[in-house]
């Protein structure tokens, strides 16, 4: 049994779960200062307050799993991404503190509003930059990171940061369409359409830019016969974009949210197609970076128990706080 491959898949699932779960509440943070009244901003924050901290469990699982299961990859990736990773964690801290203190002050509420917005924006933008850094490749020599301190700061990685901001904003707008009371909805249908349009245009540019700048990825995507199979990803994405705009026009927020999640899933498949079997693109494969099989088997025995518990808790928390918000109630 290929335990390293099993863990490669599990960590990919954990990262994807984090992106779609924490993505919408980061998106709400990005849209937060656009709320037209204090009451609207209260509702925006209350729509994610019961679940946001549980969403970040998947980030801990992904990062901790990388450290335990692929220690060589961890030792290479961390030096390459120290600066954006630190900025992301600071952003998450600022927005986390804002959840706890915003409802406990009146005079200082504007400070925590700004903290929630800035923390969400910084965390989102740096996640995109880290993704862009991985896609463009990390220099490795002698099983160590051999690049420079600012290799993560390139036009491509910055562009990926903007793409992530647009994508998370779309998720956030769709979530608000599901959760907010009816009087607040009309403006967010317009916001969701604008975010979706910006995201689609930027992803098209990114999809052209990436293979032009990386011959290995270009060969992967455009070599026959596998290119015929991989074409299903852009074809499926095109169909989901059509459904997304159709559902937004017809005011079907749940279907629009599901269509946006489908786009994230296909984007994740695209990332896998571009990088597999590398866990540090395009330098270390998952087998080269994996811990010994004895360690992988031991850790897998714990994951078999832990993962179902995390999934069950996450599902239960969303079930308990399902439905639209009541303007007279909230999570404080």
UniProtKB/TrEMBL annotation:
GO molecular function: electron transfer activity; oxidoreductase activity, acting on diphenols and related substances as donors, oxygen as acceptor
Gene Ontology process terms (BP): aerobic electron transport chain
TM spans (from-to): 6-34, 80-98, 110-132, 152-178, 190-212, 224-245, 257-279, 299-321
Cross-referenced Pfam families: Cyt_bd_oxida_II
Gene Ontology CC terms, in alphabetical order: cytochrome complex; plasma membrane
Protein family per UniProt: Belongs to the cytochrome ubiquinol oxidase subunit 2 family.
Name of protein: Putative Cytochrome bd2, subunit II
């Amino acid at each position: 049994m290929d335990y390293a491959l099993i863990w490669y898949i599990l960590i990919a699932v954990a990262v994807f779960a984090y992106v779609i779960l924490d993505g919408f509440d980061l998106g709400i943070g990005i849209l937060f200062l656009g709320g037209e009244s204090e009451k609207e901003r209260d509702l925006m924050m209350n729509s994610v307050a019961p679940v946001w901290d549980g969403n970040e469990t998947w980030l801990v699982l992904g990062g901790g799993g990388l450290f335990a299961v692929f220690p060589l990859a961890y030792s290479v990736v961390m030096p390459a991404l120290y600066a954006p990773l630190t900025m992301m964690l600071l952003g998450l801290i600022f927005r986390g503190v804002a959840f706890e203190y915003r409802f406990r002050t009146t005079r200082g509420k504007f400070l925590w509003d700004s903290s929630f917005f800035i923390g969400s924006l910084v965390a989102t933008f740096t996640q995109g930059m880290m993704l862009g850094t991985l896609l463009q490749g990390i220099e490795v020599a002698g099983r160590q990171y051999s690049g420079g301190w600012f290799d993560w700061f390139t036009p491509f990685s910055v562009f990926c940061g903007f793409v992530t901001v647009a994508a998370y904003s779309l998720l956030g707008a769709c979530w608000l369409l599901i959760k907010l009371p009816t009087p607040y909805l009309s403006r967010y249908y317009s916001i969701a359409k604008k975010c979706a349009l910006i995201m689609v245009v930027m992803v098209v540019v990114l999809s052209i830019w990436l293979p032009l700048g990386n011959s290995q990825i270009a060969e992967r995507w455009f070599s026959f016969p596998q290119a015929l199979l991989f074409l299903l990803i852009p074809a499926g994405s095109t169909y989901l974009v059509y459904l997304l705009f159709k559902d937004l026009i017809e005011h079907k927020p749940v279907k629009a949210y599901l269509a946006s999640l489908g786009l994230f899933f296909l984007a994740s498949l695209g990332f896998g197609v571009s990088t597999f079997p590398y866990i540090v693109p395009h330098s270390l494969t998952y087998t080269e970076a994996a811990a010994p099989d004895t360690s992988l088997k031991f850790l897998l025995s714990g994951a078999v128990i832990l993962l179902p518990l995390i999934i069950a808790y996450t599902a239960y928390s969303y079930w308990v706080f399902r439905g639209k918000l009541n303007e007279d109630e909230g999570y404080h």
